[in-house]
User: Fold this.
Amino acid sequence: MSSSTALLTDHYELTMLASALRDGTAHRECVFEVFTRRLPNGRRYGVAGGIGRVLDAVENFRFGEAELAQLAEHEVVDERTLDWLRDYRFSGQIDGYPEGELYFPGSPLLTVRGTFAEAVVLETVILSILNHDSAIAAAAARMVSAANGRRIIEMGSRRTHEESAVSAARIAYLAGFTATSNLEAGRRYGIPTTGTAAHAFTLLHDSEASAFESQIAALGTGTTLLVDTYDISRGIDLAVRTAGTGLGAVRIDSGDVGVLARQAREQLDSLGATGTRVVVSGDLDEYAIASLRAEPVDGYGVGTSLVTGSGAPTAEMVYKLVEVEGRPVAKRSSHKESRGGRKAAIRRCKETGTAVEEVVHGADAEPSLGPHDRHVQIPMIRDGKLVDDLPTLEQDRERLRRALVTLPWEGLKLSNGEPAIPTVFLGS
Amino acid sequence: MSSSTALLTDHYELTMLASALRDGTAHRECVFEVFTRRLPNGRRYGVAGGIGRVLDAVENFRFGEAELAQLAEHEVVDERTLDWLRDYRFSGQIDGYPEGELYFPGSPLLTVRGTFAEAVVLETVILSILNHDSAIAAAAARMVSAANGRRIIEMGSRRTHEESAVSAARIAYLAGFTATSNLEAGRRYGIPTTGTAAHAFTLLHDSEASAFESQIAALGTGTTLLVDTYDISRGIDLAVRTAGTGLGAVRIDSGDVGVLARQAREQLDSLGATGTRVVVSGDLDEYAIASLRAEPVDGYGVGTSLVTGSGAPTAEMVYKLVEVEGRPVAKRSSHKESRGGRKAAIRRCKETGTAVEEVVHGADAEPSLGPHDRHVQIPMIRDGKLVDDLPTLEQDRERLRRALVTLPWEGLKLSNGEPAIPTVFLGS
Assistant:
């Protein structure tokens, strides 16, 4: 696998480039904007996810000999375009919403400025990353809210593409998940990984007892024993008899986990294992997590619903040309029209910090900033180079945690509804 | 990015390995089976997708120094396990459904035989690939059926993770899509790629006329002009005036594409451009495609719905330990119980070739094979090596095309319902 991101690109980006190089328009200064027209499924907020990966992808967007040979052999573009691509390196400006920031319909999530040629070719990979990662981010944030401070672990790798899995693990951590099962995410992003055993481990052994003994011998009594391979209450009994009352946790992966968690808690307490945690997993989504709030659950393992965006697997963002040589442009044939001109956004907030509205304005016509308002975009790339002191994943994680607190109380409701704050478009 | 697939793995696979190496059970001969308990969303059939990628992933499942260092540093496993992983190379047997084959609930899609140690560690990456690719495959096959012989192009890269996009393009081709927009899929899998221009190209220019002129100069009159940037009928008029009646195609990407396609056809015909094709795109799924059957549409561009599995983004497959040292094993605590023992499948068919049922039987208790029945699994890996003459992507594409013809007529209905043929479990 090449580390170049240059071919993670739609064919037509390069044919447009070829035509524009030929007629001279390729060098016109342009502004492209990433935004979404709506939040999926009646969600109340979106979460900017994948910005850090976008910046990496832009840095690695280079056409080496392997990429050029492929384009030449298949006559995707002409010789002139190949020559131009050989030296490609984005030299423009990118501003955007930092990762973990909330967004709403019309929020200018990313603004890319440069010549048409250098900006248009980035469309596909930028959208791929933002559409995937932001979809996961919104689902993950809702789950963390629903978990209400309890530990929540990402374990969905097996339910999605093997590379999406790594990115989803990163985003889950951004959103406040405690850890992931995905080892590659641990390597690539320094995220804590965790895991103990599956049912196969118990089935492999001659008895549940020998499986538990083996796991404790290898991982210590602080480990989590999976107790639902045969009979849960016998499993719990055996787990405490084997590990002692210092057992770290029991995990239940099937059945009506609410009822079972309560029974498990009572049984553990009656056995004296009052400090042993109860962890549940198995087809949990934000609604199931919320429904378990009153139950004695200490931790959740979440898989499928996280990595599939819990019903909204893509964030539906678009990358639109909004300005050419300082002139606003927009498609006009349908309701899908967009607003021309480079934009920026202000998050208006009350003195309490509660967000009131998202003001999207022309970049050159900034309205007055109230005492608690703030600019949402930050500079990310200047003249092709990453700006200094871009936020780290840990900082973005804290950003999201704080941002959710600023939502009006209705904003954290899991039910479908309107965006938590309205978007107000000024000018244009 | 490393080409090793070894860390695309859940942490617990390796802690299970460590425990099992410690207690000696790691070397027990095991059989793991991949299957799904149900088809998502009332689908009538599943399509095996990703098998070729699974075989590649197994070959590249090696722990190099970079992977081992990561595991050592984070104390995922002990020294003994690191030593064992250093020499890891799958040496067992894999049988499975070839790519493009249909499957049903309980079909033994993949059977992995080897020691517990060498088979358990493959679980995550095998499931990631099969769950993603088979989800896309089923959606893609339904779209191709709905298109009923018309050309259909995959252009969903921007709506999904950048690497899922490449795999989705491969699967779309498997399912009968004509081409993809994804250049990396072209490089990696030799799939035809295609594309011309987006609205940005028109907006970049001083007028629609100059955009069309430029595109035709670069790509010839056989190109596809996107005619809905401003006003569709004026766009079509301009397109034919600019390219002549030999224009290849017009594309409409917005609005009620059925009505607009009809109007476009009439207008093109009236202008003498009777050979110019009408291509539509924009939020099409299998239902929208089917609803356009009566309209004069020559080709479809499909994006979001394809790459998100059209409502079923994961195939819900599991990888279950079913046999240890020749002894069937199965979890027993809940309704999610599975059937123990290594299995295989026979597709029972009528003389006409129509499939009648999926017979899943113990691998050692094969029922008699009727004259039109066939074994569904094929050998894929023997003693760790790929068998000779594994099918190519083109052969698998043809396999799926033929397989869909064997479904009972209800099987191709897009509406929700029961699987097209029942699964019958023999013995066990």
